[in-house]
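Notes from hallway chat w/ T.B., transcribed later so I don't forget. T.B. wanted the structure written out for a chain they're using in a teaching module, and asked if we could keep both sequence and structure tokens in one place. Agreed to drop them here.
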Amino acid sequence: MPTVKDILRTKQKSFNHIESDALVIDAINLMNSVNLSYVVVMDADEYKGIFSERDYTRNVILKGRASNSTMVKDAMTTDLPIVTLGDTVEYCMNLMNAHKARYLLAYEGRQFAGVVTIHDLLRQVIDNKQEIFDNSAARTLIDNDESGRIY
């Protein structure tokens, strides 16, 4: 079964890091230039948080702040769920669902290893659908649904 380590190994090394005292407009420009929906907030190689399009909407626009005067540290998310390199894709999906998160922080011991996104997990499911879920467990879920609908 694929793990977080497998996911991070297949991801391209991106340059989507920004410092916490950078302006939000700089984070938005960086997200645009690397074509990602988030940037990792790092200060001196230490993980501080994630700044995403959702953070921009909720913590800048809806609060009447300006992108060119708000610092990333004032709008970023810091409380995302954490996974280890040995955790499975299925575990990650359950964790994301339980926390209603789109990102998970991957750590190897105390060292920040990267970010697992909902898109990473979906790619794994599509590529490895037979390995990700036990078919009998999926069949049980479908059979137990009284409506007969598949979600």
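Follow-up for T.B.: The chain has seven helices and six strands. Might be a good example for the class.
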